[in-house]
Please model this.
Amino acid sequence: MMAASHSHRNRALLVVDDPYEAYFIFELNLDHLFSGEPDEEFPPILNIPDPATSFNNLPRSRENMATTISGNLVVVATSMSRTLLYDTDSRSTSTGPEMRSGKLSILLVPVADDMVFAMSFFPHLDPEGTPHAELLAKDTDAGGHLAWHPIPDPPLMSSLSPGGEREWRISGYFVAGTRVWVSFSHEGTFSFDTACRQWRMEGTWELPVRGLALLIPDFLGGGQQLLFGFSSADGHFCACDMEARPPVIIKSWPEAIPSKLAQRARYFADPHTATLNYCGAGRFCISTTVVTGYFPRKLTNMDEVLNLPRHAVSLVAIEVTPEMQLIRHKLDCYSMSADARVGGCHLL
Model:
C-alpha cells in the first residue's frame, strides 16, 4: 500500500458506520499511543471527539457506504451509486460523480492520488449488464474532472450470470504500485493494472489474509516484500511473504488484538472487525469494535423490548521490529453514543 519509511505518521482517520443514519469520520492523534508502557488492563473508556465530518444516508434508506483516502481526498462510494468527497486540507465536503451502477457491498482502495478502484464484493449480485468494477480518475475529455470509468471483468468471470449457481466473493485484496490484487473465494487471485487497464491471473491460490491488507516493500530496509493483514484462518495479525508462491504467512501475532484485556474487563473485542493502519517505521495501529454492555430499547411499532449492544472502538498501537518481534504499545478505547448502531469501523 505504501513504501516503508523510517518516518512515521501520527494522525489517522477513523470511520464509524451507523447504517441507519450516517458515516462519521473522526480525526485522531496517535502519538501518545506509541509512548510509554503497554497497558496491562483495559483502559477507561473515553468520549470520542466530535467528528471531522459525516455523510448522511438517503432518507428511508439503509445505504451501504465504503470509504478510502487518496492523497488528501476521502472518497465515499455508496450502494445507491453516490460518490461523496471530503478534503482533509480544506475540511470541505462535496458531491462527486455518480458510479456507473450501484453495488451492494463495495471494495474501495486508492491506487494513486486522485485515482480509486472500486469493485463489488459479491459480483453475482450485481444487476445484469452493469460493470462489476470501476475506476475513479480524472477525465481528460471532461476538463480534468473526476469520473467513474467501467473496468472489464477479470478472466473466468465471463461465466458469471445473475441468479446462476456460480457465486463470486472477494476474500482478500491489496494494492501494489499500479496494480490491485484481488482474491476470489475458491477461484484464485487476479491483479488489475490501472495503467494499462488489464487483468492478469496470478494463481489458482487465494491470499492467506481476509479483507484489506497492506503491502510494504523492503520492510524496514530488510529486502523483504511483506504483506501485513489478518489471517483468513484464525483472524490473527500476520505478515506474509509475497515472494513465495503461493504467498505464505511467515509470522503471526495473536496478542496484537486486545481480546484478552477486553475479556478481563467483561467486554468483547470482536477480532473479525479488526482493521489496520500503517504509520511508518514498522508502526501499526489496529482498530477493533468492542461490545461494552447492553441496553434495553423498544423499537418503533413493536411491543417487544430488545437488549441491544453498546459499542466502543479500541485503537491499539503496535510495532514490528526487523527481527519480526512484536512490541505492544498503548491502547485507547472510545465510546459511541447510546443510540449508535455501529455497522463497522475502520482506519484510513
Q: What stands out?
A: The longest helix spans residues 259-264. Residues 1-7 have pLDDT under 50 and may be disordered. DSSP finds one helix and 26 strands in the chain. The first strand starts at residue 11 and ends at 18.
